[in-house]
Design brief:
single chain, globular, binds erythose-4-phosphate, about 55% helix, alpha/beta, TIM Barrel, Transaldolase_3B, cytoplasm
Length: about 220
């Protein structure tokens, strides 16, 4: 499994990237809005921080304008992956973009059939939203398992990005369920690396070390 950071905040992306465990970035219109900055400027800056797939979302709802937006986004940098919402118009755009060699990440995926259709349309990535399913009483991780099994059984190409991650267990379970990538908010990334026994262990080692006679 690979880890991406789910953020449009360049400070968070820089800190995460310094850990050496992040190989891509996902953004969405809500994350961009939080920054209060120009979309293109944020995306361009992210491309200078992380050398890997960077998802930027198209906001048009019809296939034609979506394709035009995708072409503009893809022209920013070769690492840009265009996020396309899982709708009929979105699928039309995905198949046209696949023919033009533009990579797509089909987002807002909440069922195995949606993931199947995204794959058949030529998506490069699919993003099932685990946390948002859990929020309404469904099992987001079951969806990851189902998609992984279907893609495996039928040799379907997209990489599965486990998205809408709420806590560290979502990451562990996504890895076990067969996701290729988990896209993780900065807060969860920090939670993943910390453990109280690590902290108390360091404290004990340092206090014992202080007792070692020094020349
Ligand atoms: C995925 O690419 C989305 O940006 C994100 O994971 C959505 O998460 P949320 O449900 O916390 O908004």
């Amino acid at each position: 499994i690979k880890l991406f950071i789910d953020s449009a905040n360049v400070d968070e992306i820089k800190s995460a990237s310094e850990l050496g465990v992040i190989s891509g970035v996902t953004t969405n219109p809500s994350l961009i809005a939080r920054e209060g900055r120009d979309f293109g400027a944020v995306v361009r800056e992210i491309t200078t921080i992380v050398d890997g797939p960077i998802s930027a979302e198209a906001v048009s709802t019809d296939a034609g304008p979506m394709i035009a937006e995708a072409e503009e986004l893809a022209a920013i940098h070769p690492n840009i992956v265009v996020k396309i919402p899982m709708t009929g118009e979105g699928l039309k755009a995905v198949s046209a973009l696949a023919q033009k060699g533009i990579k797509t990440n089909v987002t807002l995926v909440f069922s195995a059939n949606q993931a199947l259709m995204a794959a058949l349309a030529g998506a490069t990535y699919v993003s099932p939203f685990v946390g948002r399913l859990d929020d309404i009483g469904y099992d987001g991780l079951e969806l990851i398992k189902d998609i992984a099994e279907i893609y495996d059984l039928h040799g379907l190409a997209p990489e599965i990005i486990s998205a809408s991650i709420r806590h560290p267990m979502h990451v562990t379970q996504s890895a076990l369920a067969g996701a290729h990538i988990a896209t993780v908010p900065y807060k969860v990334l920090v939670q993943m690396l910390n453990h109280p026994l690590t902290d108390s262990g360091i404290e004990k080692f340092l206090s014992d070390w202080a007792k070692v006679p020094k020349k």
